[in-house]
């Protein structure tokens, strides 16, 4: 028998929006992070892609800015239950960054300034599904939202979109990241409500 | 940032359970504590939260997270909920639920923002508003475990009447220092004029960084952002500053 909360009516999402199960819509931009916000100057920022053979591809800020930019408009879904529709970003597609990288790896471990990590299948980072984002709504990305640059993988719960991204490591085997080793789901598809291990 | 391992029992933890509301206590003008009875509750660590799911008659349902306020105590669990005006879930929990009602939840969730009784280092707890809930759980768990770990608690609230757990905190506990930081209106005998949290508050009432305390900061995003940044500026290692934001 389905459970009913006595006297609960609820607020329905605005017409035309589709919410993943258990989520609610917010117009603010809440923040989720496990510790203090690291402050990284653009001049000190570097991003590396490391292959399973140990080969490193490194971009500094000027190098990132020299790459072709895109302006994706995407919906965000945070495991803490909020969803935000139609957010506008500026960044570089991972397809561009990975174009010259030779790899047979299927797994990726992303590491941030500050030590945060998250794991993602490589297939989820290519084919126009992921960006290194440095602009939000036409401005520089604020530090509390991951600036100077963060990963953006909007089809997965937002903890996969590592803020303050520093390294993308291509790996032959999967290894759980920070929240993934704390009981959160290894993949994190909001539409299948994969919040925690076993979901 | 260290790995955040959590104890097992995953399958059991993740199951949706039906709790019965057995008690309702008014904490302030805008907050109540609900006591829940949860047969088979696997226990929790101080700082963890549960996911609450509300379902309307037509099947529409939504979820929110709420921190656990009570120290592990068999199948009984306290949640303290602050009413957010215009909110979908908190006004229901605060104003509508009465003893005898049932509530769906699952958990406990979270393995990073926790205090374990094996920790012996000094602890700094900094709470903004209802961010006090998981930190109060740590204070209670410390006492329940007979821990001697030195705790310092900084409670920020708008006015004295917004403060949660007033009488319990006034009573205090050996080895626990509590400081109140009122932002809008302070009692007449308060040595500190009302105002937002400032680095001086953390210097005066926190721990020196070379004592290597673990710091837990919880509350609204802006409060947590500022406090965590001050702690790092004062010399606390970022990996010893754990944060939870109520969004
Ligand atoms: C890990 C975690 C632990 C938490 N622990 C606790 C806890 O112990 N105690 C606690 O009280 N809270 C806690 N929270 C916060 C809690 O989960 C909810 O976010 C909170 O209760 C608000 O939910 P709501 O449904 O009432 O508001 P929501 O409906 O989610 O509204 C969110 C915001 O939007 C505004 N808003 C919504 N609808 C409208 C509208 N129609 N018009 C104007 N403004 C609107 C609200 O004012 C509010 O600011 C925790 C959150 C997290 C992530």
TrEMBL record, chain A:
This is Molybdopterin-binding protein. The lineage of its organism: Bacteria, Bacillati, Actinomycetota, Actinomycetes, Kitasatosporales. Residues 1-36 are annotated as: Disordered. It comes from Streptomyces brasiliensis. PANTHER family: OXIDOREDUCTASE MOLYBDOPTERIN-BINDING DOMAIN-CONTAINING PROTEIN, PROTEIN-METHIONINE-SULFOXIDE REDUCTASE. InterPro entries: OxRdtase_Mopterin-bd_dom, OxRdtase_Mopterin-bd_sf. It comes from the Bacteria. Residues 35-179 form the Oxidoreductase molybdopterin-binding domain.
């Amino acid at each position: 028998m389905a459970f009913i909360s006595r006297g609960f009516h609820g607020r329905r999402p605005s017409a035309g929006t589709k919410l993943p199960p258990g989520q609610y819509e917010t117009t603010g931009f809440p923040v989720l992070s496990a510790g203090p916000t690291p402050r990284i100057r653009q001049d000190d920022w570097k991003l590396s892609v490391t292959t399973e053979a140990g080969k490193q591809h490194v971009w500094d800020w000027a190098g990132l800015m020299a790459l072709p930019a895109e302006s994706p408009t995407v919906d965000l879904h945070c495991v803490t239950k909020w969803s935000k529709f139609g957010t506008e970003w500026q960044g570089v597609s991972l397809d561009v960054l990975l174009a010259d990288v030779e790899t047979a790896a299927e797994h990726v471990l992303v590491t941030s300034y500050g030590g945060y990590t998250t794991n993602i299948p490589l297939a989820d980072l290519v084919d126009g599904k992921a960006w290194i984002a440095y602009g939000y709504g036409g401005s520089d990305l604020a530090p509390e939202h991951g600036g100077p640059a963060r990963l953006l993988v909007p089809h997965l719960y937002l903890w996969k979109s590592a803020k303050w991204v520093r390294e993308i490591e291509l790996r032959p085997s999967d290894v759980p990241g920070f929240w993934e080793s704390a009981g959160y789901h290894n993949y994190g598809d909001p539409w299948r409500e994969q919040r925690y291990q076993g979901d | 940032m260290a790995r955040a391992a959590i104890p097992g029992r995953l399958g059991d933890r993740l199951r949706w359970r039906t709790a019965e509301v057995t008690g309702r206590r008014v904490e302030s003008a805008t907050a109540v504590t609900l006591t829940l009875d949860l047969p088979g509750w696997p226990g929790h660590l101080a700082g963890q939260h549960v996911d609450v799911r509300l379902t309307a008659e037509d099947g529409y349902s939504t979820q929110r997270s709420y921190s656990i306020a009570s120290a592990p105590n068999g199948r009984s669990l306290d949640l303290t909920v602050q009413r957010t005006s215009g909110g979908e879930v908190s006004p229901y929990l605060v104003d509508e639920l009465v003893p005898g009602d049932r509530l769906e939840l699952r958990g406990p969730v979270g393995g990073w923002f926790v205090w374990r009784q094996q920790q012996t280092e000094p602890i700094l707890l900094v709470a903004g508003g209802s961010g006090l809930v998981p930190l109060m759980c740590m204070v209670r768990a410390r006492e329940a475990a007979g821990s001697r770990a030195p705790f310092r608690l900084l409670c920020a609230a708008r006015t004295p009447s917004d403060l949660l757990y007033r009488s319990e905190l006034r009573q205090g506990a050996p080895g626990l220092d509590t400081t109140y930081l009122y932002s809008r209106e302070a009692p007449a005998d308060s040595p500190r004029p009302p105002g937002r949290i400032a680095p001086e508050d953390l210097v005066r009432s926190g721990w020196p960084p070379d004592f290597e305390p673990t710091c837990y900061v919880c509350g609204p995003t802006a409060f947590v952002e500022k406090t965590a940044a001050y702690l790092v500026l004062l010399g606390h290692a970022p990996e010893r500053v754990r944060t939870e934001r109520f969004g």
